[in-house]
Amino acid sequence: MRDDTQVSVLGPAPFRRPFAFTLNHPLAELIALMLLALLLIGAGIGLREPANVDEERFLGIALEMLQHGSWIIPHRAGQIYPDKPPLFMWVVAFLVRATGSPKVALFLPALVAGAVATGCLYDLGRRLWNRRTGVAAALLFLACFQTYNVLRAGQLDGLLCLWIALGMYGLVRHLMAGPAWGWYYVACAAMGFGVITKVIGFLPLFMLLPYAWAVRKDWHGLAPVPRDPWRWALGLAVMLGAVAVWAAPLAATVLLQGDAESLAYVRDVTLHQTAERYTNAWMHREPAWYFVANVIPEVWLPLVLGLPWLVPAWRQQLARRDGRLLVLLGWTLLIVLFFSLSTGKRKLYIFPALMGAVLAVAPLVPWLLRRWFSGRPRALRIFRGIAASWFVAWFVAGFVEPLREGPNPHQDVMRSAAELTGGAELLLVDWREGHWLFARQPIVHFGFQSRAGVGEAARWLRSHPDAYALVPARELARCFIPDKARRAGSTSRAEWYVVAADADNGQCRSDLKPREFRFAWQAPL
Question: Where are the transmembrane segments (predicted)?
Fold first, then answer.
């Protein structure tokens, strides 16, 4: 539904061009805003290194897929990785092959997602209200802290943003500017791909709840979508078809192999990491008010600064039965509520809700500017200067942050370990993904987060006298003579030492015989 007048709460709009960004044609505005997103989010992309465990893990899995073909059941250093579906790792692997640069490929999915999300927000704002609203929605999205926190990281939440944005776009086109069954099916396909990226890819479906209520109560601004059960059901089939891109070969693999590891993987990825993690999380446990009190005031800046004016305006629009606002705000609140009810919480979980929030705020931007700056042209010029400086700062930060962080310390540790051992087999103790990703020699481990530790390392070295072990300093003296250990370097977690069998102090005996996993990169990073 197109509305070229400002919503009723705004009254006359004296700021006909509240943003200097407004151009003469919608397509030109769309392209310009998407290019701006690429510029801001992609700043410094060639300088960024995998800098945290998530980035190290996903890049490593993608590279292992390319090396060993473990596409259906992903592996981490030769051991099954059961935490997430593989679509993000597939995309990264494809981009590594296409670009030849792993450290660029890792960050490209989020960059593309940011540009697409920006374009979707602009087009929805334009269609639901007017072009000014579309520009405001896109710029508000690009102004927020969380946009850069999520989309400059090499994590699967960046690719998830793409599917959520397309799912939201398709449903809004169908429910508010439709009926548009084609866009509904696009939304369903996007949500299916979102599920095999990160199970919460179904989040746009929450939009149906406030929509159904608003239609029943005859609120305005919504499309009269026909009640064709078979068409609605076809959307579910499309969504399941997208999920089947991975689920079907997974089922075939498990049926053909039938081994305990494959069955355990299916249970982990479908239950343990979803329903069990939602209801009884074993990490990132936070109180129910965490997102509202601790996260949104920080990561949704500068959007939250307008809340003292926005909340009364929203109340007035809802009193006028504006279905557009009800669906967008309702969807945003349902996402926040959904994650607030979970026992495990991370800041990035509520990022999808930001897209609904900016669309709810955008039509009020001209009214806010009029309220704040009417009769004060100098103050308006200062505001525009601050806004422009804010975007310039995000661009500059894209180059400064990678330079400030420097190279990944695991890279130096593993290079030093290879030099100290002459490239011999290296046992990893209490290791993290960075040790595996940057390994320059054959590595051995007892499983990620295994109970086996330095005692088992000492036992293993006795039967492998030509090999070495990489041991954290805090565990070194328990089983080894410190004077015979050689320092390999340090990371944020520990200082690391290389030891050989002759460093054994004879104090450690272990009857535990854990399973051994072996791995070697054909082309080390």
Answer: 27-47, 104-122, 134-151, 158-176, 182-211, 232-256, 288-311, 323-342, 348-369, 381-400
* Residues 339 and 288 sit within 8 Å (Cβ to Cβ): no
Q: Find residue 76's DSSP bridge partners.
A: 79
* Separation CA 444–CA 515 (nearest Å): 10
Structure tokens at 510: 């272990």
- Whether the ω angle into residue 302 lies within 30 degrees of 0, i.e. cis, is yes
Q: What share of the chain is helix, strand, coil (3-state, %, to 5)?
A: 65, 5, 30
Q: What pLDDT shows up at residue 304? A: 95
pTM of the model: 0.92
The pLDDT value recorded for residue 230 is: 95
- β partners of residue 489: 496
Asked whether 204 and 191 are in contact (CB, 8 A), the reply is yes
Distance CA 61, CA 430 (A): 19
Q: Is the pLDDT of residue 328 over 90?
A: yes
Question: Quick check: 213 and 266 in contact, CB under 8 A?
Answer: no
Our CA angle for 521, 522, 523, nearest 5°, is: 90
| Number of residues assigned to the chain | 525
Which has the closest alpha carbon to 339: 288, 273, 297, 284? 288
